[in-house]
Design a protein that fits this description.
Radius of gyration: 12 Å
Strand content: 25-35%
Number of helices: 1
Number of domains: 1
Order of helices and strands: EEHEEE
CATH topology: Ubiquitin-like (UB roll)
CATH superfamily: Beta-grasp domain
Shape: globular
Largest sheet: 5 strands, mixed
Number of strands: 5
CATH architecture: Roll
Distance between the termini: 28 Å
Amino acid sequence: MHIQVNGEPRQVREEINVTGLLQDLQLNVERVAVEINLEILDQRDFDARMLQEGDRIEIMSFIGGGTSPYL
């Protein structure tokens, strides 16, 4: 399945949720914010939100001790 992550095309397996994508990207689920198709997703919904063909995902990491250029 083809999606876009932070503006870059990416191919992922079928039947993947947000948590699975973050794990594949080796990102800490508790330290990121995720937007899908311009909608900010609550972290409680990461397991339930299945990705769909063509989804546009933006992932922003939280950085301790300063501000992130992505927030």
